[in-house]
Give the backbone structure.
Amino acid sequence: MKINLKSPLFGVVIFLLLCGAWFFYDNGVEKEAVQQTPETNLVTIKNAYLVEEKQGKKNWELTADTMQVDAVQQINNLTGVKGKLFLENGNIVNISSDKGALHLKSKDVQLTGNVVVVTTQAEKLVAQDLRFTNVDSLITASGEVVITKPGVYAKADKAVADRGLEQIKLIGNALVRKGGE
């Protein structure tokens, strides 16, 4: 399933789903007894596919086993996350994690649990948490960060990198070894 968040059709579909849920929930329930909770604003989509394009080229794409859309908070909560960042130089960065959150306004992505980032140049970053900020295209990883590149092994408490893992700053208990592990 392909979902383009910029499409007006996507907004209409979410609106209709929420209206349908409200209609079925509202019938037969006394008005005084109805309390809106955050759960009533959620829509769950299985096998979700999200993509962002800029000037006709893919910027990133993301798939998830499940995606819970929270229209009020403007967040998509994801499980079983797999994604790709498409770099201007033609390289691709593959990303996976157990869970994630896509902030719809900022288009920032927060990933948690078994985060793995692999580039087409055989560079790899493994961490427990990762945040990609769309405005500055920075990746911030934390939680037992391990980075491997051909001939280099590094680990730290935290790492900040560009989206292609070309420039990496290690923070806290940093260790770098040439020659690999």
Summary: Helices lie at 8-26.
